[in-house]
Design brief:
Elements (H helix, E strand, L loop, with lengths): L2 H22 L3 H27 L13
Helix pairs in contact: 1-2
Length: 67
């Protein structure tokens, strides 16, 4: 696995963690901030992955398997 593939996987993990924290927080301010962060991470990871695929730097995004 290349460093770029690892980066994309870590961005997916960050997105999931941010979403879980967004849903679980009891603070309205944190809920709003985490929602904005979650949305920004998703947009960034999508743009980055599409760019890297378009440039031929990675061939596809691979999901981690659940064991």
């Amino acid at each position: 696995m290349t460093q770029l593939q690892i980066l994309i996987r870590k961005l997916y993990a960050l997105s999931v963690i941010a979403h879980v924290e967004h849903v679980n927080t009891k603070s309205f301010a944190a809920h709003e901030a985490l929602g904005e962060f979650y949305s920004s991470v998703n947009s960034f990871k999508d743009r980055l992955a599409e760019y890297l695929i378009g440039q031929g730097r990675i061939s596809k995004v691979e999901a981690a398997t659940l064991s």
